Structure formats: structure tokens, C-alpha cells
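Standup notes
- DV: blocked on the single-chain target, sequence here:
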Amino acid sequence: MPDLTKTTATATDEQPVTPDAPVDAIASGPAPGKPRSLWNDAWRELRRNPLFVISAFLIVILLVVAAFPGLFTNANPDSGDQVNHFLGKPELTHFFQADWFGYDRVGRSIYSRVVHGARNSILVGVGVTILVTLFGGLCGMLAGYFGGFWDSLISRLTDVFFGIPFLLGAMVVLNAFTERTVWVVMGALAFLGWTQIARVMRGAVITTKHADYVVAARALGAGTKRILFRHILPNALAPVIVVATISLGTYIVAESTLSYLGLGLGDGAISWGGDISDATQDIRNNPHTLFFPAGMLSITVLAFIMMGDAVREALDPKLR
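- DV (later): unblocked, structure below
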């Protein structure tokens, strides 16, 4: 008859589990892989999304054009020859030349103005988006985390700004300035556009601050600053990024609309909206003067909206 006592002792003594035993000694299998975060999953989804690839390609090209217009044209966008180039038709055989898009009634190259106009339009859109995201995000984070007086104050303030029509308010603000530079237009649009980001951030922070990891961090003695910027902000940032990406195209349209009405960029600054305004008087007989700046504006806005939709689908698990 086999010695059961010896067999049991041998099986028991192989991996004794005691309170003092290290975790590595207790684990018998390989360590599990590190779980992917929301941002890693979102990036994997974005790379597979054709909408993101196309929009990212267009945005990169537009950013390069805005940053280095001299790489695409050497024609002066402000100088014109009204005698030789008055409403000249496009010459499609000369790609990337001054006459590729034709000329306006002042004799200026439309192609050159479209290329140089990308800088101001995209700069205003990106600058306003950054300003409203920083200011609106901070206000929404304070309102959602502290609640009480701060929540009531910021919420009522956003209600007041929501009651002001965006374009009408921007027209009133810009009309008070005699010199309307890019920074003035950016400030006017950011002054009226921060409320949407604030509300989105407030709702995300209210949802996040009751999570278990935030409660645990507070119980362990983490300070308010650490909880806000280390635990709450990274997990409440996804909806803000989606709204900011889609809103960027809206701010580009707002700048072009103001320039079209004569209340946008001044001092001879090149803007797609200003060129569209100049082209309206020739739209019947010379539609090319309107088609090219309007087409570039539409492509730019469409690219950022497509990017926003792709980011929204990647960051929202329910849409996958």
C-alpha cells in the first residue's frame, strides 16, 4: 500500500503559500499582458478608418500649404495687372502656376490668393479652438468638480453667452475695433465660443468624479490638483476633443463669413471669405473667381468635420 502521507506532503511542499511569500513566488503562470487604454484602442480604430486617413491626409496638406505657401507659388497675391489679366480665365495646362485658377477683376492671381489665404483662415480656426478648449475646459472642470457656488456661477454665465447669437455677437465685438488683425478676430470668436466646451467638460467631470479610482485617490490623501489633472482630466478629455475637432471647421467658416461681410480680417489681409465677397459681382460671367476660394473653404471645413466624426467613432465604444 503506497505511503499517502509522503505523497501528500510532497504535493503540498512544492509551492507553499504563506503570508510572507512574495507575489512573484505565488504566481505560477506568465504575467498577463498590459491592458490597452482608451487612447490605444482609439488609435487602433482610427488607423483602420478610411474617413480618418483621408481627412488626415487633407489636413496635413492644408497645414503645409498654410505654413509654407512659398513652396506652392511664387506669385505675389497682392499685385495685379488689370490691363493684361482682367478676369483672365484659368489655364489648366499650367499647373501650380499663377494663371492655373485664372485672375480676378484687379488682375491678381486667384491661385496665389487661395494658397496664401489658407494661412489666415486655418490660423484663426486652430487658434480659436485652442483658446476655447483651454478656457472652456478649465471653467467646465471647476464647475463639475466643485459644484455648489462655482457650478451655479459658471452655469449661469454660460447661459448668458448662449443667449447671444454667435455671428451677431462677433460682428458687434469686431465693429468696436479699428484694426482687426488675426489676433483680434481670434479673441472675438473665442470670447463667444467657449461655452459649448465648458458644458461638455462639466458633464464629463461630473460623471468621472464619482468613479472608484477618484474616490480611492481622495481616500489616500491625494490633493485637489492631483485629482483634477492626474485622474479626472485624462478620463474626461475624450468628448472635449471630439467637440473641439468638429468646432474647428465651424470657426473657419465664422472667420470667412465675417470677412465676407467686411467685418473680419482687415488691413489687406488675405482671406477666403474676402475673396468670395469680391467674386460675387462676377459670378454670372466669370464663376471661376468664386469657385476656387469657395471650393478650398469647403474642402478645409469638410476635412476637419470628417476628422471629428472619425475621432468621435473611435472614442465612443457604443459607435464601434
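- Follow-up: The chain has 15 helices and no strands.
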